[in-house]
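This follows on from our talk about sequence and fold. Can you supply me with one protein entry, sequence and fold together? Could you add the entry underneath, on a fresh line?
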Amino acid sequence: MCSQTDKNSVRSFIALFFFSVAFAYIESAVVVYLRAIFYQDGFNFPLTAFEEIAGFGPYLVTEIGREAATLVLMFTASYMLGRNFRRRFAYFLTIFAVWDIFYYIWLKVLIGWPASILDWDVLFLMPAVWAAPVLAPVITSLTMLVIASVLFGSRAIEITKPRLIGFIAAALMIVALFCIGGLRITEPDYRLYFSWPAFVALHAIVIFLFFGCMAGKMTRIDTPSD
């Protein structure tokens, strides 16, 4: 039989799922409005530099602030739901991943975009512009869900410091790949600046390091289970 803790975790996850789906709709609605106002001829790559779009300058600062507020909401929800670092991290990964995947689902429902999962999109604006084919952030989100599911299913997660450092370094390199793509979104050959081999290799490294955290001399990063 399931314990009361397990039942509470299931309820929290279900609530979190619907929160993330609804949050994704809000995100996609904002993007629908922005594209209708500033990309009336279509959101097509290569893009015009943001500062060259008439009237977009002040809204760029607002958009960066909105993204920062989005992260604050995700961190806050994760902190309130989780009772230790492991749970909070798992909740954050879940919120981010479900939010990101359903963001594209809602855009497809609302405006029929993307036409293909290989269409490019601007993913984020902090600390620089992130850009890549839609398939790339979806893969990243699915990886986050896999990691979150393991965190939810285990009472104690332990990891060696070298593997933790490697995990963080690989994650930051994935962000760097997105930023490299973002730097080139105004250039005709923008597609050449996103490396699929490097992207796949880094995700494989992240998964390998995470699932290898049970080996070797361990340093606990968990608190007593909730």
